[in-house]
Specification:
8 strands, TIM Barrel, 227 residues, eight-stranded mixed beta sheet
Amino acid sequence: MMKEINLNIGGLTPFSTIDFPNHLATIVYTQGCNFRCPYCHNLPLVDCLEIPISYEKIYEFLQARKRIIDGVVITGGEPTLQKELPAFCAWLRNMGFAVKLDTNGTKPLMLKLLIEKHLVDYIAMDIKAPWDKYQIVTHTSFPIELIQQSVSLLKETGFPCEFRTTVHSGLLTFRDLEKIVHIVGQNHLLCLQVARPTPFYKEKNEYTKENLEGFIKKFPKYKLEVR
C-alpha cells in the first residue's frame, strides 16, 4: 500500500451499474462543495457532517473487489476542491481501475491537469443553469467564466464526457433548458435529471420524465437523454 492520501471521503456505494458507462463501479463520495443547490441530496457531504472514511478502509475495500469491479466514480460534494485528487486518481489507475469524475466545473485548471496527465477516463460535468441564473440555482456568487472554461476545455479536447442538468420547475423553465441545450451543442451528450424531493427542499416539481422526453424531441440533432 502506498503512502496515505489525504482525501476527505465521506461515503461509499459498493456497486453501481448505471453511474459509469460500460463499467461496474464503486462510487466514492468526497466531502465539501462550493455550491449550495437546494435540491442536493448530499448535504451532509457538502457541509462535512459525516466522519471521513479512513484511507485504509478504502484501500482494503477496493483491494478485496478488484476482480469484481473495474471502475471507480469519484463524486461529492465537489471532488476538484481536494488538492490530493490527482494522487488519488493515479493510485486508482495504478490498481487497474478506470476512473470517472463527477464535477461542477468550477476548477478548470484541475480538470486540465487530470486530462493532460491521463488520470481520469470519463468526466460528467454539471451545468446547473443558463449562465444568467447560476447564482439563483447554486445559492452562491461564483465567477461564471471558470465554469465556461471547463465547458470549453471538455469540448475542445474531445475528452470522453457528458454534461448533466438537474431540473426543478421552481428553478428552471423550459426556456432555460433550451439555453442549456445550446450551451452544450450538438456534439456532446446532455442528460436531464428530474430533481427529487429531499428533507430540505420539498417544493413540488412539475417536471416528469415524460414531459422532459417530450421536450427533447424538439431537438432531433442534439444528443439528449432523460434519466
